[in-house]
Structures are given as C-alpha cells and as structure tokens.
Amino acid sequence: MALAYAPSLETTPVRIAQQYDHFIGGRWVPSSSRETFATTNPATEGELAQVAAGTAEDVDRAVAAAREGYEKYWRPMRPADRAKYVYRIARAITERSRELAVLETKDGGKPIKESRDFDVVQAAANFFYFAGWADKLRYAINGVSDPAPVGVVGSIVPWNFPLLMAAWKIAPAIACGNTVVLKPAETTPLTALLLAEICEEAELPPGVVNVITGDGRTGAALVAHPGVDKIAFTGSTEVGKLIQKTVAGTRKHLTLELGGKAANIVFADAPLDQAIEGVVNGIYFNQGHVCCAGSRLLVQENVHDEVVAKLKARIETLRLGDPLDKNTDIGAINSAAQHAKISELIESGIAEGAVLHQQSCALPERGYFHRAAFFTGVSQSHRIAREEIFGPVLSIMTFRTADEAIEKANNTPYGLSAGVWTDKGAKSMYVAQRLQAGVVWCSTFNQFDPSSPFGGYRESGFGREGGIAGLRSYLSV
Amino acid sequence: MPLLLSATSPTVDAVMLEARASGFAKRSIKNEAKLAAIDLAISCIDLTTLEGRDSPGRVRSLCAKAAYPAPGAPRVAAVCVYPNLVAVAKEALRGTGVKIASVATAFPSGLSSLDVKLRDTEAALESGADEIDMVIDRGAFLAGEESKVFAEIAAVKKLCGPIHLKAILETGELGSYDATRRASDLALEAGADVIKTSTGKIGTSATLATALVMAEAIRDFEHRTGERRGLKVAGGVRNTKAAISYLVLLDETLGDPWLSPDLFRIGASALLDDLLMQRQKLATGRYGSLDYIAKD
C-alpha cells in the first residue's frame, strides 16, 4: 500500500442525553405511558439514548398544541414576522451544523462526509429558501392573491435522511402559516429532537412545531387523528397505501413521497468514466437508502462489458467503514431489519440466476454493513429488478435502442426518478421527455435544491416538495 | 511494432469529471500517512527553473537544494532546466542520484520547424540530459493536423532512444477536456513515456480535473497495450494539500505502481518549501515559517 489513509475521525463532541421526552406545545413532555424505547448506533450496535414512546394520548396532546399554536400565535402573525423565525432556525442549523452532522451519522449510520456536506447543508438551505416565501405567497398560486394555510399538518418522515426530511416537511409548512406535528422514524429520532431544541431556542411560539417520537403505531394515530388538516408522508409505498386508505373519506389533504426503482440509462456515446461516477453516486450514496436511487442500470448492450469492468474497478476504491471517519464512502446499514431485507433480496438475485459482484474489502467486526455490490445477468422479471432493495445493490440490464431503454425504464409501478447518460443533446431530450419519472437527471444524478420540485409518478406518490410547486400542498386554495 | 494513432478518443463530461476530481481533495490524510505522503511528494518533484535570467550560479544553487532539501528529507526526482544549463546541472548533480530534465523543441511555444526542434533536442541530449520535456504543437493540433503532431512526437522519441520523453500537452490552451483526452491518447500512442500538463508559462496550469483525464488516458493505454506510462503535473501545485490530492488521484485511478517518481512527477519550485514546512511541523509539532526554509 503505497499511500495509506490513516483513520480521520470527526471528533466534534455532541451531547446526547440519556433520555428524551416529546416536544409538545413548546415544552418537553414525557410519554403519557412513561414508556421509552432505545435508539442505537447501527455502526456500533450500541445504544445512544432512550426516547419517549408516543401513545395515542401523546398524539392527541400534540395535535391540540399544534391547533392552539395555529389559532393563537401563528395564523394571526404577520407573514414577515413568521419569516424571521424561519430564518432564525436556518441560521441556527448552520451554526450547529457540525453537531447535527455528527448526531445524524451516529443515529443513522451514514458517512460523516455526507451528513456534513449534504444533509445538514440542504436542511439549512430549505429553511432559508422557504423563509423567503413566507411574505410572498400572493405570487405562489396564479389567481390567488391571499392563499390561506391549511392548518395543522401531521408529518411522518423516514430514517434515510432524518434531518433533511424533517426540514423538507417543516420549512414549507410553517412558512405558509401552518403548524406541524412531526413524527420522526423509529430508528432515527435524535436529529429531529435536536431540531426541536433549535426551535425552542429560536423562541418559536409554542405549538408551531411539535415532535413526538414513536414507532408505526404513533404514526398511524397521527394519520387517523381528526384534528389534523393535512398529512405529509415520506416512506415506503406499502405504508403510503395504508395511509391513503385511512385518509379516504376524510377532508384531510395528503401528499406522499414513496419508493422508487429508478433506471440509470447509459448509452454507448456517453462519457463512460463520468457515467460510472453517476451510477456509483446513484446507488451507493447513503448506502442506497434513497427513494430516488438509481437502482437499475440500463446499459447499452454494445458497451456492457466495458461499463461492468469500469464499475468493478471503481467500487474497489470505495472505502467502507466507520461512518465517523471522514474518508468513509460506504457507511452502516440503518438497522438490523434493513440489513436482513437487503440480504434476502441479494439471495433472491442469486437464486434467480443473476451474478453477484461485490467490492472485496473487509467488513467491520461490529455494526450492520453491506459491501457495495451489483448484479449482472439480471432480467426484468427478477425480484432484484422489480422490488426496491433500499441498499447498496445495483441491478444491471441491457438495451439496444433508445426506445427499448425507455420502455424498460418505465416498466415499473414506480416513477420517482431516472438518469440519462449520453453526449448527444437531442437524444438526451428525447429520452427525458418520454421517461415516466418525476425527476429526470441528464448526465448527472442526485442533484437537489430547495427551489426544485421533487416527487413521483404512480406508486412513487403524488405531490411535490420544493419550489413553488412545493408550496401548493401547504396552502388552502 | 508500428505506431498507430487510434481513430477517436472517449468523450469527457466536464461536470461529472470536476465533481470526481474535487472528491480527491476531500480525502483526509493525517499523521503517519501524511508524513509518508509528504516524503513521496518530495521524491516526485522535478525542481524547476525556466527563466530567461537563469545563470550557472542560479542553477548550481537549485541543484544543491534538489539533492539535499533538508535534514532527513528525501532528494527530489530531477531538476528541470533549459538546454543551455544542462551541462552546469550535470556537473552540480554528479553522484547525487537527481536526474537532469531539459526542456526542448522550442519550449514553450513549439512553433519552430521540426528540424530546429530536433536540433534543440539533440543539443540537450549531447549536454547530458537524462530526460527531455518536449512541447507538442498546439496550433497544429487545434487546426486538426493530428498526424503532424503525432509524427513530431514520434520523431523526438526516436532521437531520445531510451532517454525518457515527456510530452507537454499545454492543456490550458487546448480548450476542453475532450481535447486533453485526445492529445493524451495521441502523445501516448506516439511513444511519449510521460504526458505532462503544462509549460507553466501561461495562466492555466495543472488542475485535478485535467490530471484525472490524463490519468484515465494512461490507465486505458495500459489496458490496451500492457505498457505503463507516466503522468507529470506542472504548475499550479502550490502547497502540500494540493500535492497530496494528486497522490490520492493516482491511488484511486491508477493504483500503487504510479505512486513513485518512476511514473509520477510534479513540476514545481515553491511547492518544495511548503512540503518541507509541513514536514517540519509533523516532526516537531510546531508550525514552522518560511524563514526556516532555505531559499535556493
């Protein structure tokens, strides 16, 4: 090894309490049952803290607090004053960014490089962006000069981008004059709780943002609660469908941001080395725990072998290990349960006849880790080509023509994102226009901005987050 | 085996290339790894002086530093000078193991006749140069005269024989990464032992992104032919952090064999001072200052 990388651990200390309560009505309130559950670090399997187990009664209190916050403080406030609170939160996130990044990495397992450079940066950016909209809502919807907020929003967010998803939900909601009850994912509550602390220190009026921790049952109680005007959910398609059923027949507004099985399409005339970067980023970023992950590679048949060879060489340079090491590219899988799901799908791939390739690195002794992997010899009917793996596993298939690529890319119940790699502008446009996906990335991948609307077609959900389109669902028209 | 110029070269996407290249600068190389990287970087330097006012005295002083940069530090790979100063450098570096690289072929413009450029090269070789740094004809390249550019490199290499030839592409003049890739492939196929980014005489010198394109060309050349060729980045590598980024680039693109002065060089002058200062800091735990570094 001519050039060794010594471990370069992020050592910023972050205070983690032994136990956390809910944040309801501007105060820290224990669960009505006094019960708690553990949240662990998936890289060490060690417990980080105990958090409150949200009961139906807790949900009730939180919704009531959100209602009171809405009627008493937030709705009557001048929009420009609301904006000041949102800016204050944005600045606080920036000031405490290192702390938030370390906490996100410890609770969720993602590399510090990502939580530091992407998650926290984007979270702050979302608060800054939507703060700017608070007093300009007259321009948000054509023909509506004074759109009203919806009221109380129940937001349920997943474990893959805990802080960022909380920001995506809270920032537009409160900027538009709504109040929020946020239920973070069971395995990743800590950054949401730190965000609550930030809201508290920003002196956000009580009840504007409430955070209740808990598992699926807590979320279900929130979805079913009659005092909630809108539900915003990001998570699996399976749960999204349940939520839609629950909400049917009520007057609740609903937006869903669900799963995906995005196709990254690489043409023979693409700059192949750079297309490989996009493929690698598309599936291995955040260990593949990304709804819009490019989990299928559709490669033009005449360059299949070359692309596979380049990919194989490239994944050998990905560093897998301690997520707190600044040099780590592949961190921990979020939980034992997710690790098992990924293993099961990998086994199905092998059983159905596809060929598994993996990076050859050693795995840490503790923690839930999967090596960066890809399958060749995959066909459309294989489970690994149809089901969302939500792990660092890519399924590679070939195509001959642009039309065939489009057909294969669209042959899925999902429709969240896609990637197109070609040097030819006309072809890039042709393909992009025909892909049934909410976001199409051309010669790039995983590009996000608070001003850019994100969301899916079909079973990837409905509604958009980000930009003017993202304001829509938080306004009553 | 006849030299063949391949019909086309792969295309390069600038946005994704630059994103990948910036990733190399984000690697964190600390402590023991950093000390090893600093010494490796020092051992890969071509300590350079290419000024109209270069005199024998100036060159002798540079050579002394090249052979013995600081107590405990390794010597550099080579000094790089104009042909007229090769003999002086040869004498000053006798027995030190430091090589003498000479620029040639109407450096830096390359816009003289082939005869003149070959005679220029011959003179440098006769004076005792161990390596030749030639410039390719960028005007001809941009005018589409690829075979002319190819033939000139091949002719210079023929003259050099076993002496290592570096071909300076002057990437800052080529206009695009696609052109850099094409020029890289052309130079490698024409027989250049090392492809080099820049003359250091124009505003734009080596960048991580440009070096990445060239490294990819070298990697693919090895796949095609089994031969390992080298990379030299010249100009713009101002400090230790930058130097280490290039080492990371090599490590993650080409692999272990290129982490050696046999296959990698940095054309620099001031960089050595920063490397020595960082070396001092790691050894003593205290930040140094340029006052403690000898000015050559």
Output the keywords:
heterodimer, A: 477 residues, alpha/beta, Aldehyde Dehydrogenase, Chain A, domain 1, Aldehyde Dehydrogenase, Chain A, domain 2, 2 domains, 17% strand, globular, B: 296 residues, TIM Barrel, eight-stranded parallel barrel, 12 helices
Summarize the structure in words.
The complex is a heterodimer of chains A (477) and B (296). Chain A is of the alpha/beta class and 477 residues long. Chain A has two domains: 19-258 and 457-476, Aldehyde Dehydrogenase, Chain A, domain 1; 263-442, Aldehyde Dehydrogenase, Chain A, domain 2 (3-Layer(aba) Sandwich), CATH 3.40.309. Chain A has 15 helices and 20 strands. Chain A has helices at residues 56-74, 79-95, 97-108, 112-133, 162-175, 190-201, 216-224, 237-247, 272-284, 304-315, 336-351, 383-386, 402-410, 425-434, 467-472; strands at residues 19-20, 22-24, 27-29, 36-41, 46-52, 148-149, 152-156, 179-183, 209-211, 230-234, 253-257, 263-266, 296-300, 355-358, 373-376, 393-399, 417-421, 439-442, 461-462, 475-476. Chain A has a seven-stranded mixed sheet with strand order 14-15-16-13-12-17-18, with helices on both faces. In chain A, a hairpin with a 4-residue loop joins strand 4 (36-41) and strand 5 (46-52). Chain A is globular. The relative contact order of chain A is 0.14. The model of chain A has no long low-confidence stretch (mean pLDDT 97). With 296 residues, chain B is an alpha/beta fold. Chain B has a single domain (14-292), classed as Alpha-Beta Barrel (TIM Barrel). In chain B, 47% of the residues lie in helices and 12% in strands. Chain B has twelve helices and eight strands. Chain B has an eight-stranded parallel barrel with strand order 1-2-3-4-5-6-7-8, surrounded by eight helices. In chain B, helix 10 (208-225) links the parallel strand 6 and strand 7 (230-234). In chain B, helix 5 (114-126) runs parallel beside helix 7 (146-160). The relative contact order of chain B is 0.16. The model of chain B has no long low-confidence stretch (mean pLDDT 95). The A-B interface holds A 1-6, 8, 113, 269-275, 277-278, 317, 326-327, 423, 443-444 and B 10-13, 15-17, 19-20, 26-34, 36-37, 40, 216, 247-248, 250-252, 256, 259-260.
